[in-house]
Inverse folding.
């Protein structure tokens, strides 16, 4: 929106209308010590064209996937986004629509949320989905809180192979409530069933597992649901939605709650957001899930209509009865994800997942053949893997960036070993790009 300034006459009329003599009178309640004694040293004004040109110059300094090849992951990925996704999501009736607090406000928005919920249920194999949450980390935290309230227990067990950032969010959400968060130790990049057995007891409210996990490895979850349920605890699974194109849905192996970061479903990385949190559960937990849920009904004339239902939010019921203080959802991001899922379909998901799988294994094999580099874990993985090297990681990655390649994320950033980095490969990475990665890696490592 262009900036339109007020004239001196406009300002005078406004001051007179509110009954003050000048602008300074509006500031009388601010202590003098906080007021600037002189005019702020701002540069002279420039034209709109000059300002736009300067902002574009500054923006061009950003390194992003439009001008650099990315192998970054850990929850945010450079997947291809079909052009129809952004085109439809940016239509003004979607992009500028207000949150539907009242069920009758916007049938179109409510229907888009309902369709999104339906697709998430199909994707995860669960019975019910909410309208989305802020991000994958807060979804995981809300799932843990639900489990504690449902089971009336206070111990939350989390596999240590879950994304460390998500673990910290769970701790932050649950700390003031008095819940206990305990990590289950990994064994060479995954958590064994024996380790779960040694930790789960009658005080356990839930067990949180991520597969593919933070290292990219696939967790062996065979029999885990039965073990968790035998202690009357809930099984929470965090997934990469794209991986469902190749692997079982969590509902098929006994998950009670499924959470995920939905960025990979048609959302740009956008320097960290906005994204959306996926949250789905079994029918048994339907009345306990946080956020809003859209349902379908019929009016008195038999016409189909969409309504907000199961509104267990603090805006609709007594605060102490609310399941969560999450009073909104990422409606536009969820709409975008819905468009992406509709566009891709089951076959599209499978094709993307297969491409991620085979391309990541191609690059991993080639990296392992470079002197001084090895793949840390000998485990099945999906599209991410950890590289261990004898060379200093951060200088190596910085040099790769200079060559136009985001080579990976230093594990040191997540307080893990400083001689490792995490590499993610999506369907966008071509053989030529990956071969170039290897060429540059050899060139730079020989000079370190």
């Amino acid at each position: 929106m262009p900036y339109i300034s007020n004239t001196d006459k406009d300002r005078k009329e406004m001051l007179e209308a509110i009954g003050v003599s000048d602008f300074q009178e509006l500031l009388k309640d601010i202590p003098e010590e906080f007021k600037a004694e002189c005019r702020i040293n701002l540069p002279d004004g420039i034209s709109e064209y000059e300002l736009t040109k300067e902002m574009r110059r500054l923006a061009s300094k950003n390194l992003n996937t439009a001008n650099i090849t990315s192998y970054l992951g850990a929850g945010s990925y450079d997947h291809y986004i079909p052009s129809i996704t952004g085109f439809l999501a940016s239509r003004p009736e979607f992009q500028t629509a207000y949150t539907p607090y009242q069920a009758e406000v916007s049938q179109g928005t409510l229907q888009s949320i309902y369709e999104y919920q339906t697709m998430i249920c199909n994707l995860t194999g669960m019975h019910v989905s909410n309208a989305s949450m802020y991000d994958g980390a807060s979804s995981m935290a809300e799932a843990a809180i639900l489990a504690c309230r449902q089971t009336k227990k206070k111990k939350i067990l989390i596999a240590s192979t879950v994304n460390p950032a998500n673990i910290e969010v769970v701790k932050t959400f649950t700390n003031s409530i008095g819940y206990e968060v305990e990590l289950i130790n990994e064994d060479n990049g995954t958590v064994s069933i024996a380790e779960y057995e040694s930790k789960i007891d009658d005080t356990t409210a839930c067990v949180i597992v991520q597969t593919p996990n933070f290292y990219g490895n696939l967790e062996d979850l065979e029999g885990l649901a039965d073990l968790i349920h035998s202690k009357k605890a809930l099984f929470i699974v965090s997934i990469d939605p794209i991986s469902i194109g190749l692997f079982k849905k969590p509902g098929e192996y006994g998950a009670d709650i499924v959470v995920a970061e939905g960025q990979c479903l048609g959302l740009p990385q956008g320097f960290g957001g906005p994204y959306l949190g996926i949250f789905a559960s079994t029918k048994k937990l339907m009345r306990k899930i946080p956020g809003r849920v859209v349902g379908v009904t019929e009016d008195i004339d038999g016409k189909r209509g969409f309504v907000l239902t199961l509104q267990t939010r603090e805006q609709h019921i007594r605060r102490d009865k609310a399941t969560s203080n999450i009073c909104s959802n990422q409606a536009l991001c969820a709409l975008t994800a819905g468009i992406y899922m509709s566009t891709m379909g089951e076959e599209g998901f499978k094709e993307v997942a297969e491409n991620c799988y085979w391309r990541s294994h191609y690059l991993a094999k080639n990296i392992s053949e470079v002197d001084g580099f090895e793949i840390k874990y000998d485990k099945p993985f999906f599209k991410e893997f950890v590289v261990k090297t004898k060379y200093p990681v951060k200088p190596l990655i910085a040099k790769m960036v200079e060559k136009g390649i985001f080579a990976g994320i230093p594990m040191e950033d997540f307080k893990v070993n400083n001689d490792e980095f995490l590499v993610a490969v999506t369907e966008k990475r071509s053989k030529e790009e990956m071969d170039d990665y290897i060429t540059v890696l050899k060139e730079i490592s020989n000079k370190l």
Remarks:
- The first strand starts at residue 69 and ends at 70.
